[in-house]
């Protein structure tokens, strides 16, 4: 009896400790977000908050959000980012789906070597990534010297999609490996072409994989600003950089915080929508830890 009571008390203490630790970790993770929210509703007087309690000292205002939506350049940048993200998603799906299907279903010369090259390109970052950006810029400058216009928004979707191909091809290939080959064989016996099998049979059966492509492509295109700024394309990320801390030099911390929150909302909504599909993709093997 005493042993059971001691075990019950120990279990209760462990639950309380785990709960306290959970809330502590949650608070630590959400504290920066809360800080940005408070900063965004602080009057814009060059004030950078150092404590959340300062909100009672400076008051609350939504002027920063109104200021953002009253700027025509904001709407232009928002539309540019939306168009670029949409085109990146379309190009990624059109390119990655057949590539992943080919790697999953066919055996051809250099297949394994190419897959390993994809794996290396998708995993190596840091200095290699910086070198890649420099090489990309030099290549675009050469194209520009040949009379091919590269300083426009229509170039960015191809750059972003090409950067997503190695990593996402690996992901979707793993997903296709788990799809029954009988689907392909039945469609092929009925006279369907390979393109019809990929886009009319495999693609509808791979909704979760397509959502994964959409999620990663959107997040990559929406969140990138370095290359966009390099090519002088006014995306929302480049607009925020130039407005709050960039060449326009306003040095407006509260405006920057409000723009950052606006910037984050679409990514949060897309991620919330994709949650159930990410779980299904985990079960099917498209996303591996």
Shape: globular
Helical amount among residues, as a percent range? over 70%
What's the mean pLDDT score? 77
Q: What's the Cα radius of gyration?
A: 24 Å
Return the string of H and E elements: HHHHHHHHHHHHH
Strand content: under 5%
SSE-based structural type: mainly alpha
Largest sheet: none
Number of strands: 0
| Poorly predicted segments | none
Whole-Å distance between the termini?
A: 44 Å
Total helical segments? 13
Task: Give the SSE map.
Blueprint: H1 2-40, H2 55-58, H3 63-69, H4 72-105, H5 111-123, H6 127-145, H7 156-177, H8 182-189, H9 194-205, H10 207-223, H11 226-230, H12 236-245, H13 253-284
Give a description of the structure.
The chain has 289 residues and is mainly alpha-helical. It is globular and about 75 Å long. It has 13 helices and no strands. The chain has helices at 2-40, 55-58, 63-69, 72-105, 111-123, 127-145, 156-177, 182-189, 194-205, 207-223, 226-230, 236-245, 253-284. 77% of the residues lie in helices and 0% in strands.
